[in-house]
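Can you please make up a protein's amino acid sequence together with its fold in C-alpha cell form to help me picture the idea?
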Amino acid sequence: MRHVAGVVRTDQNWIGGNNYNPCGAGFVGPPPQEVPRLLEDLCAVINDDILPPVIQAGLVHAQFEVIHPFLDGNGRTGRALIHVVLRRRGLTPMYVPPISVVLAGDKGSYIAGLDAYAQGDVDAWLTTFAAATAQSAGLASSYLARVEALQNQWRAMLRATANPRADSVAWALIDVMPAHPMISVPVAVAVTGRTKAVVNEALLQLETAGVVTRASQGQRNRTWEATGLLDLLADLEAGVTVQSPSADS
C-alpha cells in the first residue's frame, strides 16, 4: 500500500461488510469531500492548549480514527498522534509511554470505546483512554525498574571479571545500552565520544563478562546484543508487569 501512504483519501471507506458497498459495515468514514475540512479542524485541536494533555491526546486520537483519512495506516498514525500531543505538551518529553501496548492488549474495550465516541459518548471513550494511560504509566515504571536492576547486574558481572577503572568506557556503555540493545562499534563511538580502539577494548571486556554477546561473527560490522535486554523489551511489548528486585537485593 505504499502508493497510498500519507495520501488523504478521495474515495469512501468503511470497515467490515463487503468490498463493494458499506452495507453491513461496522464503521463508515465521513464522505471524502468532508475529510480536508475535518483534518483542518483536527490540526487546530492539536495546536491548542486549552484541554488537559491526556484528554487532548484521547480526543485527538479518537477524532482521527473517526475521520479515517487514509486508505491504510489510520490506526498506526492515530496512535502516533497520542505521543505527538503528550510530548508537545511536555508530559512525556523523554520517552514514549506504552499506551498503544495497553490499548492493543484489550482490543475489545478499545474498539468499544471508539464506537462509543463515534456515537457521541465522549465520556465513555475518555474513561477507557484515561485507564489505558494510567496502566501504561505503571507498565513503564515496571520496565524502567527492571532495566535499572539489569544494569546493576551488568555492573556486578563486569566488576567480577575485568573491574576496569572508574573512567573506563565499559562503564559508560552500560549506562547507554538500554537505548541500544544491539550495539556496534560505530554506534558505541558515537554515543560515548571515545576512540574506536578504546571502544573495541571495552566491548571485548563486556563480552568476556557476559554483559554482551556477539550477534555477528565477522571481523567487520560486528554487532553485540545486550544480555537480557531484548527479553525485557519483549515483556514490555506484551504488556507484562513484573515486580523488579530492589537495587540492594
